[in-house]
Design brief:
Number of domains: 1
Order of helices and strands: HEEEEEEEEHEEEEEEH
Largest sheet: 7 strands, mixed
Distance between the termini: 34 Å
Radius of gyration: 17 Å
Number of strands: 14
CATH superfamily: Transcription factor, T-box
CATH class: Mainly Beta
CATH topology: Immunoglobulin-like
Number of helices: 3
Length: 184
């Protein structure tokens, strides 16, 4: 996992990710460094999101607490990295970024965004599949990785003020919200 220090800062206070009808990019973004692939073999890189448990959460005063049973699980969507398929040498030359991945709460989404329920906890899973194309994935050799630091609660608005501050201080796209920005 790239940017481990940043992910740890968020993880220690309970990472939250905004989901919107039109889809929102993640910050921190999912970025992984890959090694050990066969340089000339073709691979697909995929990400899916799995529920951490069977609960719905609510923010109460200054912490997350269980607020009941989880909503029925949505059909699992997988985000395919746009460079897929590519040779192992391509994936290993620099960190693989899933920056274009978007999260949504729109159950009728037609754009291929990852559909999640708000106020639920999720974990991204990274799939590395040795395959020439999407159609041969079922019979392919694959590995699945996840990182505990990337677990997050999906929200439509940040609940924890510390998360809001961390996002503003560290996200290059949030510079307009910083104290020394033009929009004060």
């Amino acid at each position: 996992l790239e940017d481990m220090d940043l992910w740890m800062k968020f993880h220690q206070i309970g990472t939250e990710m905004i989901i919107t009808k039109s889809g929102r990019r993640m910050f921190p973004q999912c970025k992984i460094k890959v090694s050990g692939l066969i340089p000339y073999a073709k691979y697909l890189m995929l990400v899916d999101f799995v529920p951490m448990d069977n609960f719905r959460y609510k923010w109460n005063k200054d912490q997350w607490e269980v607020a009941g049973k989880a909503e029925p699980q949505l059909p699992c969507r997988t985000y395919v990295h746009p460079d897929s398929p590519a040779p192992g040498s391509h994936w290993m030359k620099e960190p693989v970024s899933f920056q274009k991945l978007k999260l949504t709460n729109n159950t009728l989404d037609q754009h291929g965004h990852i559909i999640l329920h708000s106020m639920h906890r999720y974990k991204p899973r990274f799939h590395i599949v040795q395959a020439d194309d999407l159609f041969s994935v079922r019979w392919s050799i694959f590995q699945v990785f996840s990182f505990p630091e990337t677990v997050f609660t999906s929200v439509t608005a940040y609940q924890n003020e510390q998360i809001t501050k961390l996002k503003i201080d560290n996200n290059p796209f949030a510079k307009g919200f910083r104290e020394h920005g033009k929009n004060t």
